[in-house]
Design goal:
It is a single chain. With 180 residues, the chain is α/β, with parallel strands linked by helices. The chain is built from five helices and eight strands; from the N terminus they run βαββαβββαβαβα. 28% of the residues lie in helices and 29% in strands. It starts with 16 loop residues before the first strand and ends with a helix. The N terminus is likely disordered. InterPro entries: ADF-H, ADF-H/Gelsolin-like_dom_sf, ADF/Cofilin.
Length: 180
């Protein structure tokens, strides 16, 4: 008899495990149609992927896209229902690696007039300073990118995968094209 360890057993590159609750919530979406979508995030303290939010069966694709953060990464699964050209009702499950991060790079410019620069000390010349947030967006992207494959393998029954860095890459039309 073989046992698969979840939770604390992270992969070598990121060290992230997958919570049992995450897998169970996905199975509820897949088998019981309890959820339209599930959004997952990496809990760095627990070192595992956990459920952040679920959407009920009546929620729309817009509800799903609005549940993804504008400036952070997430994983998500979406149960896409559609009707084929033969008028058959179908359902496909999409895995979305949401790696959208708005640039948090700000440029601070302080220029003084040329007259002031002539007499100024070298340290007083115009400068550009780069300010970064306390949590680096690059670090978040790297963490999600290195953990994606292992997490994706835990979710048996995914039909399609989308990696999106902005909303246009996961537009509803993209899902329709992939599903048909």
């Amino acid at each position: 008899m073989a046992f698969r360890v979840r939770g604390g057993g992270g992969n070598a590159s990121s060290g992230m495990g997958v919570s049992e609750h995450s897998v169970n919530t996905f199975q509820e979406l897949q088998r019981k149609k309890v959820h339209r979508y599930v959004v997952f995030k990496i809990d760095e303290k627990k070192k595992e992927v956990v459920v952040e939010k679920t959407g009920g069966p009546a929620e729309s694709y817009d509800d799903f896209t609005e549940s993804l953060p504008e400036n952070d990464c997430r994983y998500a699964v979406y149960d896409f229902d559609f009707v084929t050209s033969e008028n058959c009702q179908k359902s496909k499950i999409f895995f979305v690696a949401w790696l959208a991060l708005k640039s948090s790079l700000t440029v601070n410019t302080e220029f003084t007039s040329l007259r002031d620069n002539i007499a100024a000390q070298p340290d007083d010349f115009p400068y550009f300073s780069l300010k970064s947030p306390s949590v680096s967006p690059i670090r978040s992207k790297m963490l999600y990118a290195t953990s994606k494959d292992r997490f994706r393998r835990e979710l048996q029954g995914i039909h399609y995968e989308i990696q999106a860095t902005d909303p246009t890459e996961m537009d509803l039309e993209v899902l329709r094209e992939r599903a048909n």
